[in-house]
């Protein structure tokens, strides 16, 4: 699905976006600072708060109609600590209208699969660009499917900025994973210096374009916006900062892929999400869930984040 490159200014030149279907059906009201933000977005990323929204009835979530919460365990855990975490997760009461996924380290996937409630699906944290073979240290989508994984996390900032994976390589991974029936949590996000330079949208749109150029369909993709400066730092984007990027991402999808994809694709937030801030973040209309790091290693707190969907219902 090849796309022409587009500038940041062209993405927002039409003003606040409107979306059909399950998404926004009315113009998004914006404050004066936000209007200035959209006009000058290439030179400045606005940090202003959103204007208040009128009360409205509960609306269906994007895609499957469900909030989406993923837990990325990263390179953490042991057999004993994971056994304790699984006990906590299995005993948790989780809202029914949430898709819940956890991503253990590769070597513990089988342990998790054999012990975790079927209520929670399993993801891997990475996969190779094609079939298995002479690729030391890699794991293929086919192997992930064989062991019971339903999802894979791709494009995470630690893969981009520590391991050195580039946009096109990540897009290739995503396309192959989708072709083998895995769902993809497709991560995007800017570094602190990129935000401070006013390049948040440029960076996110470039990363989105690499996915769009490679994937045959968006049906099984969840976009995870994770500002790199908020991952594992204890800093978190304000609900308004996260919302404005999510709106821009959805607008980009509408203009560059299709209005249907923009309407259906779930866009989740990641970056120091925890039990204390999830409820306020969940109230934002275009935040369709979370990708959780450290807090996903604590069963009760992860359950609190999953159940923050209740705030989404109240906000709606």
What does this 3D model show about the protein?
By secondary structure, this protein is an alpha/beta fold. Helix content is 39%, strand content 12%. It is built from 14 helices and eight strands. It has helices at residues 8-12, 32-39, 79-90, 109-115, 141-147, 157-163, 167-179, 192-196, 200-214, 239-256, 259-264, 278-282, 299-306, 309-315, and strands spanning 67-72, 98-103, 121-124, 151-154, 183-188, 221-225, 267-269, 289-292. It is globular, with a radius of gyration of 19 Å. The model is unreliable at 1-60 (pLDDT under 50). This is Isomerase. Homodimer. One of its GO terms (molecular function) is triose-phosphate isomerase activity.
Outline of the structure:
The chain is α/β, with parallel strands linked by helices. It contains 14 helices and eight strands.
Cα gyration radius (Å):
19 Å
So what's the CATH class?
Answer: Alpha Beta
- Low-pLDDT runs of 5+ residues are 1-60
Which class best fits the helix and strand makeup?
alpha/beta
End-to-end Cα distance: 34 Å
Annotated CATH topology:
TIM Barrel
β-strand percent reads 5-15%
Mean pLDDT: 84
Largest sheet: 8 strands, parallel
List SSEs in N-to-C order: HHEHEHEHEHHEHHEHHEHEHH
Principal-axis shape equals globular
- Which architecture would the CATH scheme give at its second level? Alpha-Beta Barrel
CATH H level, superfamily name: Aldolase class I
The percentage helix is 25-40%
Counting DSSP E segments of at least 2 residues, the number of strands comes to 8
By DSSP (H or I, 4+ residues per run), the number of helices equals 14
Number of domains: 1
Pathway: Carbohydrate biosynthesis
Protein name: Isomerase
Region (Disordered): 1-20
Biased composition (Polar residues): 1-13
């Amino acid at each position: 699905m090849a796309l022409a490159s587009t500038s940041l200014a062209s993405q927002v030149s039409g003003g606040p976006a409107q979306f059909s279907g399950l998404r926004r059906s009315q113009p998004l009201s914006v404050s004066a600072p936000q209007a200035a933000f959209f006009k000058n977005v290439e030179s400045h990323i606005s940090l202003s708060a959103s204007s208040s929204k009128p009360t409205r009835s509960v609306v269906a979530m994007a895609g499957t109609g469900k909030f989406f919460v993923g837990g990325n365990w990263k390179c953490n855990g042991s057999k004993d600590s994971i056994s304790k975490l699984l006990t906590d997760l299995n005993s948790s009461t989780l809202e029914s209208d949430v898709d819940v996924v956890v991503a253990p380290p590769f070597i513990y996937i089988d342990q998790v699969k054999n012990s975790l409630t079927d209520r929670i699906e399993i993801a891997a944290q990475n996969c190779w660009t094609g079939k298995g073979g002479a690729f030391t240290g890699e794991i293929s989508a086919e192997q992930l499917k064989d062991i019971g994984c339903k999802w894979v996390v791709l494009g995470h900032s630690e893969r981009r900025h520590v391991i050195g994976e580039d946009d096109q390589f990540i897009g290739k991974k995503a396309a192959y994973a989708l072709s083998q029936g895995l769902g993809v949590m497709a991560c995007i996000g800017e570094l602190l210096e990129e935000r401070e330079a006013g390049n948040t949208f440029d960076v996110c749109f470039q990363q989105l374009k690499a996915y769009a150029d490679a994937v045959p369909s968006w049906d099984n993709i969840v976009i995870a916006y994770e500002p790199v400066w908020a991952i594992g730092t204890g800093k978190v984007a304000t609900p308004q900062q996260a919302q404005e990027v999510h709106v821009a991402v959805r607008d980009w999808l509408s203009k560059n892929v299709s209005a249907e994809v923009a309407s259906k694709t779930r866009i989740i937030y990641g970056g120091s999400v925890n039990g204390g801030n999830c409820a306020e973040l969940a109230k934002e209309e275009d935040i369709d869930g979370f990708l959780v790091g450290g807090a996903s290693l604590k069963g009760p707190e992860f359950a609190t984040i999953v159940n923050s969907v209740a705030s989404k219902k109240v906000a709606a």
